[in-house]
Design brief:
Shape: elongated
Strand content: under 5%
Number of strands: 0
Oligomer: single chain
Structural class: mainly alpha
Number of helices: 3
Radius of gyration: 26 Å
Distance between the termini: 55 Å
Helix content: 55-70%
Length: 79
């Protein structure tokens, strides 16, 4: 754990000392749920990184569209 993270945890711990037991339990449940969501999101993001480009157009049509959208500016460079 980095120094910064350790400091953050210590500061939050001091804030939690004033909470009653029920509130602390709810906080633990909320943190647990966020950890589960985070794990699911990372897993989903990993699997979303695979796959093909989603389009109904053929590869040739996409290439032609890209090439036709290019704009070139002729500019004289003076030295």
């Amino acid at each position: 754990m980095s120094y910064t993270n350790k400091n953050i945890v210590e500061n939050y711990s001091m804030l939690f000392e004033g909470l009653n037991s029920l509130t602390k339990i709810e906080l633990i449940e909320s943190l647990t749920k966020s950890l589960k969501r985070e794990k699911t999101l990372k897993k989903d993001d990993f699997f979303k990184s695979f796959g093909a480009f989603g389009s109904e157009k053929s590869a040739e049509e996409i290439v032609e569209e890209i090439k036709s959208s290019r704009k070139f500016i002729k500019k004289e460079i003076k030295f």
